[in-house]
Amino acid sequence: MTTIASAGTSTAEPAEDSGHPLAREVAAALAEHFSGPFYVTPDGLQAPLIDSLGSVVRLENVVREDIAVGLAAGARLAGGEPVLLMQNSGFGQSVNALASLVLPYELPMLLVIGMRGTDADDTAENLVMGRITEDLLRMFGITARALPARDPGPIVSMAAADLRAGRSSALLISPGLFGWKATA
């Protein structure tokens, strides 16, 4: 069983023989660079990351992304380094919370966004958000970086530096990064 430390991080290491290797590596980097809290909304693209992250930090499951943004804003005001995992359709749901709370009051947080409607995911209901997510982030002044398939630590470290400099940041997860495949 995982033991939760007072800062919201776990003292356990992810199991070496379970889960996706890259997801374990990203989870370890997030746990190393961010104190949290870590808010999670459902996202099949990130399921391996969510599982791995849950073995090293305490996750707070939230049903809607805009609610997660509000919780993260409060956590930031309390001195936390909030991390939100969501898919880009949920990012669309959270636009107002970001535009009217996070940005004007300069409450930086890390958004880890599963990029549905891009690359291998050509489902019609996800294509619009797939096309506009990066543009929305850019309009908000949120630096977005695609998480690479190899050596993700430096990219996670750059996102942490953004937060510590008072800027929100986003890590973008492509559909196949953790092995997700479209189903018929």
Structure description:
43% of the residues are buried. The chain is of the alpha/beta class. It is built from seven helices and six strands; from the N terminus they run αβαβαβααβαβαβ.
Our measurement of the CA-to-CA distance between the termini, rounded to an integer number of angstroms, reads 37 Å
Structural class: alpha/beta
Mean pLDDT score: 90
What does the overall shape look like? globular
Helix content: 40-55%
Structure summary, number of beta strands = 6
Unreliable stretches covering 5 or more consecutive residues? 1-17
Q: Describe the biggest sheet? A: 6 strands, parallel
SSE order: HEHEHEHHEHEHE
| Physical arrangement of strands within the biggest beta sheet | 2-1-3-4-6-5
Rg, nearest Å = 15 Å
Count of helical segments? 7
Tell me the fraction of residues in β-strands, as a range.
5-15%
Strand and helix map with partners:
Layout: H1 21-33, E1 38-40, H2 47-54, E2 59-61, H3 65-77, E3 83-87, H4 88-93, H5 95-102, E4 110-114, H6 124-140, E5 143-146, H7 153-164, E6 169-173
Parallel strand pairs: 1-2, 1-3, 3-4, 4-6, 5-6
Helix pairs in contact: 1-2, 1-7, 3-5
Structural descriptors:
six-stranded parallel sheet, 184 residues, alpha/beta, 6 strands, 7 helices
